[in-house]
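FW: tagging you since you asked about this chain on Friday. Here's the raw sequence from the shared folder, copied in full. Didn't touch anything.
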Amino acid sequence: MDLDVLYEIDVPKPWNGPHPHGQRAAEQRAYREAVEQIRLADRVGFRTVWAVEHHFREGRSHCPAPEVLLGHLAALTERIRLGFGVTLTPFGFTPPQRIAEKVAAVDVLSGGRVEWGTGRSTPMEQTAFGVDREQSRADWKEAVEIVTGMWREEYFEYASERFTFPRRMVTPKPVQDPHPPVWMAATSEGSAEVAGASGLGLLSFSIMQPLESMARQVAAYREAARSPLPISDVTTDRVSAYTLVHAAERPSRRVWDSVAWWYSNLAQFTLDWELPHLGPEEREKTFPLLTPIIRGEVPVRDFDEGDMILIGDAETIVRKAKRYADLGVDQLICYVQWGYLEHQEILRTIEILGKEVRPELARYRPARAA
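HL: got it, structure written out here
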């Protein structure tokens, strides 16, 4: 199993100063530190860095333009792959031709190191950009087909009820031929099936669900991937899962406070923006722990004890991570910059993961493959 790292650029309040100066200083520091951390991840052997596109997520995700961050990193790193994790593809966010141009440009600048993740976004973002939630799944699929077509064909033209594009050469073309690997973000068994059936890699997570629930998603993906009908020119049969990771022999109070902040923030966001759009059965199946979290019924250490997050020394993290490998996860995406963690703590985590954890996981042969 490979190790990846993911960045949303957490900038939690308080910002140690009134708006706008406190916010601006905190955001600038978070970006500077993230770049230094990712450069270290490159040196110690992480496979991919994923940069998340989100909008308006106050405090928890200040990375609305991953192509800018990844383009910067293309010049500062040598081996680590650069993942769009994910690009919001429904038509109201960014026209497909602009997505094709930006992603391909990063692939050129990095010498062919891009992984392209795709997704539909959240109601908070959709309403601000005028995206129809009911249409977003169809838009996502059509946009993926259009973007990969723009990369594949010398000249591209297209017409449908939702999108029209005249015959044009879309430049640049990506280094990877015919195009970078394509992934899809999934939060349920149904969406995992769509990813597998579409021939796309699966971007999953364990943060808000027990590992047993994630195991069902992986199984649904693997079954659907047995006979895919690919919507791109590259079939990607890989599973990734992202979660909070922190390496420390004796985690400090700040670590657990950061876990509590992160979970309460995510739970409140989900309550405000996701639950109204889910029926009771789907809500309970997709987010079984949400209501207990909001009620304060789940101690933060329960997430660690259930291996939904990975906190501890190198040996502990290896033991926990092997459970993910046994479930069928190919790439463990380590979310290391979260909450109130300090820069030096995060650098130390990355170093331990790269030098002590990664070699052990590279040698491990999962029980599923035994």
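FW: The chain has one domain: 2-257+308-369.
HL: agreed, and DSSP finds 13 helices and eleven strands in the chain.
FW: great, closing this out.
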